[in-house]
Amino acid sequence: MTVRVRFAPSPTGHLHIGSVRTALFNFLFARHHGGQFILRLEDTDTNRNVEGADIQFLDGFRWLGIKWDEGFDVGGPYTPYRCMERLDIYRQYIDRLLREGKAYPCFCTDDDLAAERNQAEREGRIPRYSGRCRHLPEALRESRMASGEPYSIRFIVEPGRELVVHDLIRGDVSFQSDDIGDFVIVKSNGIPTYNFQVVIDDIEMHITHVIRAEEHLSNTPRQLLVYEAFGATPPAFAHLPIVLDEQRKKLSKRDPNVLPIATYQSLGYLPEAFINFLALLGWSPGGEQELFTVDELCRLFDLDRVGKSGAVFDVEKLNWMANQYFKALPVAQAARMVREQLDRAGIGLPAHADDTWLEEVVSLYQDGMRCAHDFIEMSKTFFTRQVEWEDDAIVLLRDPTARSVVEAYLAHCREAGEAWTAEASRERFKRVQADLGVKGRQLFMPVRAALTGQLHGPDLQKTIALLSQKVVIERLSAALAG
């Protein structure tokens, strides 16, 4: 058997992190078993579809490196892969159910159904459809349909049945047909509902495993009934643990700590870091290793190590992992990514700078960066003329000893004919030390405070060398004047 899995998003907004994790698990499972991964678009909720969302899905997956074998952009043997282009296929299956007496037209209005729900709630019953249209005479049905009266189509659910979902992660989960009732499979606008359409597509596309979010578990008994009605063998089901926020509540699309995938991409995060982080969101490879290449994940991933309990989206862990990947980049690649961020922000290089200079500045900060965008805030001292001194820097620069250090270093900077390098800067500090008898923090911190407005930062000698001589003299003079 060739493993065939699918991810089928609805184009109703940006990709939620939980959805991306589901797509990744399907991709890894397919690759682990030498199978095929299909990307389908469930666009039947026409009132909520967002124009361009499908293109954003494709862009996001391509950035992440999630590759599909068939899909709504590349086609395949079971085209089309957009549900709204498959309505004729669904109609054939619907007509068969109607002919075989396994479904019927329902003329109940929204008000009728609301009244039934309200009555059930008053009586303490689980709301389910009463079946009032199930036994209408055929002649009456035909007459009402011919008159143009709106109707949906409902699937007949026999009472008194236990429906067991054999879940690869959760084991057997039982449902009672009495809690379901006859459910709608085609809406009054002629578009099939999810619980019907998804089964037909999975039958037609020979899907062997359905790996999806836990929230779909309650849909599964309805889908099993549809498979049964057509004499089709259902796929194996695996319902993934829910993704939680740091308060252990269901992660919201509007959680301010979790950004859309496109935003992470635009900020210059590395996709390898995201793949690694999401792979560990509910799955454990065992052992202490935390950083994995995509090839390693494909080799190791399987459903037997996916947990049942909710997986917490740990922002701190994501930041740590993003940093691990970013600081491991060749500095030339990191600098190219940083240059994109600078260009996007309208920030040009200083007059004395070139690409080599930028690489050297990036190297000062790379070990602390999660993404390329971090550089803009971290490196402001290299891209602004005016220094904004922090309070503790101002306090230090009022100290007479600190001022004398800045004055002495400034005097050496003004000496003509001296090379402007990190080594030359060290020599200047040695002279200040010899002149004033200060060392350590008392020697270096006042100059850093005057130059950058901060008491702490990257290598001071390299920082001075990468700032032009003119800028250093201007800043030291301004600090003393202040």
Automatic annotation (TrEMBL):
Free-text remark on how the cofactor is bound: Binds 1 zinc ion per subunit.
Names of the cofactor(s): Zn(2+)
Domain Glutamyl/glutaminyl-tRNA synthetase class Ib catalytic residue range list: 3-320
Any one cellular-component term (Gene Ontology): cytosol
Positions of Zn(2+) binding: 106, 108, 133, 135
Protein name: Glutamate--tRNA ligase
Domain Aminoacyl-tRNA synthetase class I anticodon-binding intervals: 335-480
Signal peptide: none
Catalysed reactions, semicolon-separated: tRNA(Glu) + L-glutamate + ATP = L-glutamyl-tRNA(Glu) + AMP + diphosphate
Gene field: gltX
Motif 'KMSKS' region, residue numbers: 250-254
Localisation per UniProt entry: Cytoplasm
